[in-house]
Each structure stands twice: as structure tokens, then as C-alpha cells.
Amino acid sequence: MVHLPRWQVILILLVVVLGVIYASPNLLFSRDQANELAVDAGWVPHQQISLGLDLRGGAHLLAEVDLDYVFTEDRENLAEDIRREFTRDNIGYSGLGDLGENVGVTLNSPADADKARDAVAGLSQGLQIDIDDAGVIRVAFTEAETRARANQIMAQAIEVIRRRIDELGTREASIQRHGDDRILIQVPGLDDPQRLKEIIGKTAVLTFRFVNENVRPGGPVPPSSEELPAADSGRPGLPDSYVVSKRIMVSGDSLTGASATFDQGRPVVSFAFDAQGAKRFGEATRDNVGKLFAIILDDQVISAPVINEPILGGRGIISGSFTTQEAQDLALLLRAGALPAPITYLEERTVGPGLGADSILAGEIASVLGLVFVIIFMVGAYGLFGAMASMALVVNLVLLMAALSVLQATLTLPGIAGIVLTIGMAVDANVLVFERIREEMRSGRGPVTAVDAGYRRAMKTIFDSNLTTLIAAVLLFQFGSGPIKGFAVTLSLGLITSMFSAIMVTRLMVVAWLRSRRPQALAL
Asked: In what order do the strands lie in the sheet with 266-273?
């Protein structure tokens, strides 16, 4: 154990140097400077430890996704599909509609039951079809299909919310599913939670449709059209609502980009379609020059301009009575995509940065005091060897900071507790080694053989104790949540770095000292 191959020495020194490099941004730069460095020189190590909501302050939201909205839409679509299939197959029916938990329809002739069952079964997998003797059909999605649909909607909602928050420039947000239909959103460092709510809460379904100029708002509306309110209703000279065709000219799914810009000094949103969307938009505007088309967001007409000329090339602008901030937010929503269902907020809390600063200060004091007491004990108990172990302890903290920075693991208040615990545990391995060396010296061995035997005897115990703790920490991370995960993260990383520093770094220093001084006895 006292003979370290050259490659091991190089590897140990390389790890320590890289640890210092990747931990240094936390000490050398402010968070704003680190962000600027990421933009100007992204190849330079610039990542800092990501602070959690309890340390940095920010917004905490608990949102509920309206899954019933999606299930209702699915049943309505299923009813339309049944209507189409029955019409095509000449199956007489009545009373087709959504009954709340299933779609119901009554056959004019019960003899068509088998034909109707085949037609409905072919619409989709995961349908439960019940037909009684009177020809009454009830069609519902199976429990497995409903559960899979709910999981899909929740995953899609989380992804859209993450993209929208990322567009704000915040990439340290914690967005987690909380129960069957809730999402826990924590955004550290955000000082405008109201804007966060407004951006997250918008469904952002964008469509382009023609205005039915033959029908006046407020009057009878034909089945192929619907009356929608104007987003800027109440403004003089502008209508409060529009009658628009239900047929969608182009949907927001065809958008490939959107950005806020200015047109004639007014904030507008420019957009671009993909090839298919550009073709449809170009053909529609070419055939309808001089007519009005409506730009509709979440069932509100935000603009209804006249088509002065064909809009080819797949690019255009959305104009309206936007402020600069509203134009930026609309462009953000269009880029991030639409939420699959409306959401409501059940809980909202704002954590002030002052509490986080106090927590960080308390954590720093606890860490420094722990470090000082450990160093005093080690030097007092083991002399020079204790000083080497203390130096390895500092290396351990540096490596831990580097690991947290590189992995962008979020440091929370319980995480600081994990670091303090790691400091206390970090020298345990050295205590075991030094005690074994003492036993070997008392049995009459020389310095080199005592050190060699001490490391050999202590190694198995060190691995066993740290491995069992590491397994417990991994389980805490896997099955825990919130503060428990934060504690498990720093404890796990701290165990790994402390095993490296306490065994490899301390051993390198001991071996280097033995080779350079060649002592006849050990002051241990």
C-alpha cells in the first residue's frame, strides 16, 4: 500500500486540480458574472452550485391540471367519430352524446348491434362497449386507457411548463409531479411570481381562421361558425367580438418560431411556419385577398387583419394592442407550445431571499466550526498525520463543491446539513487507518511496514461502512422527496469524495513523506 504506481499519482493529482478548477467559479464570480461568462466564453468552467428555493428565495406554486377537461374533449371527439362511422355504415341512431362518464347512443334497430359494435371497436383501442337488448350503447374508455391518458397529459404539461420557465432564462427550476393531477413548481431566484403564474397558466392554443363577414356579431350564427370575443374588446372603434369560421386555416402546431419585434413603432410578434404550414397559409391568403382572417389565442381573437396580398414564404406578424412585455410573453408561449389542459393554482408561496441568506450564513458558520474542531482534534490526536488528514478534508470540500457545480445538483438547507455531516464522517477513514498503524507499531513493525499493514487492515472496514451508508443515501434519494432528496444528494456525493480524499489523497501525502524523510519512527 505504500507503493503508488505513477499513473495513480498522476490520476490523484489530476482529480484534485480539476476539482479546484470546477469549484473556483463559486468563489471567484458572482452569479451574474458566471451567467455572463457562460454566454461570452462557454468553454470556461463557469457553473456554480445551484441553490434551492429555501436558500435563494423564489416562487413556490402547486398547480392542478384539469384532467376532466381532457377527458370531456376525448368523449366529445369519440361521439363525433361514432356519428361519422354510423352515417357511413347507414346505422340509424338517436340520442348520441356525452353522458359524463361514457358516450351514449340508441340504435333505431337493435338488429344493428353487431354492426355498430364493429364500427365503434374500430375507432380506437382501449374502449369498453356495452350494448343492451334495447339497442342502447354505452362506450367508455377502459381504466387502463384512462390512466395512460392521464400520465401522458401530466408528462406533456410538465414538459410545456419546463420549456416556458426555461424561456424566462431560469434553468434551475424544480418541476415535479405531485400526486395524480398536481404539479409542484419551485423557481429559485424569480422575483415576479405573478408573471410566472400568468405565463404558466395560459393554454396558448393558436389558430388562424377566416372571419365570417356575412354575419354580424350578436345575431344568429350558422353551425359552421362561432362568435368569439375580441382580446381588446372595449376599445373605441373596434368590435367586441367576431364571428369566425370553425374551419381552421392553419394551427399553431405548424409554427417553427416566434419572436417579439416592432412594426411601425408598435410591438408585434413575428412568426414562421414549417413547410406544410407555409403552403397552407400561402394558398389560403392567395385565394382570399381582401378578406379578414382572425388570429385566435385560447378562444380570443387577438387580431383580425385584412389580407392585402398573398402571404407567401411562411412568415408573418401578429399585431394588436400589445405592450412590449405582452408581445414578449406571447412569443414565449408560442415557442413553448400549448398546455394540454387548463391548470389552476392550489397553493402559492413566495420565499424571500433574506431567509435564504440567513440559512446560507448559518450553514457556513456550522461548516467552518465543524471543520475547525475536526482539524484541532486530528492534529492534537495524530500530529503530522492528523494535519495531512485535515488537508485531505479541505480537498474533500473542494471536490464536493466541484461535483455539485458540475452536476448542477440543487443545494438546499437539508443539503447543507448533509455537508456538515460529511465533514464529521470524512476523517473516520483516517482514524481507522491511523489506529491500525499504531497497533502495528506497538507490535514492533517499522514505519514503512506499519503504514503498509495499517492501510491494508483498515481498507475493508472503510469500504464496508461507507458502502452501507451510501446505499442508504441512494435509497433516500430514490424514495424520498423535497428536503430528503437534498440531504441524500450531498450525503451521497460527500461519501464518494471523502472516500477518495481520505484514502487516496491522504495516502499520497503519507507515502510522499515516508519516501522523502525515511523516518526511523512515526510520531503517531
From this structure: 255-263, 266-273, 315-318
